[in-house]
Amino acid sequence: xxxxxxxxxxxxxxxxxxxxxxYAPAKHNDYGFNSFPGISDAIENAKSxxxxxSWYSVQHEVWRVARAITQASLVLSxxxx
Length: 81
Fold this sequence. Notes:
Distance between the termini: 8 Å
Mean pLDDT: 93
Strand order of the largest sheet: 1-2
CATH superfamily: Transferrin receptor-like, dimerisation domain
Number of helices: 3
Order of helices and strands: HEEHH
CATH architecture: Up-down Bundle
């Protein structure tokens, strides 16, 4: 249940087939992986575009991960089954 809390049915924004919000293969490196891949991808995108919408996307990805961590915490404490 805890591991499932780290997944999101919508997946990563540009790679919807990856559902895990904590780790996934690196976007530009076939042999590597990223921790918090949605946040990492959003930051790279925001740095290249440098628009308010792209930085809002970073904030949204951080919120998604925070929500997943909260859900996992509830599962581990027995308050969410």
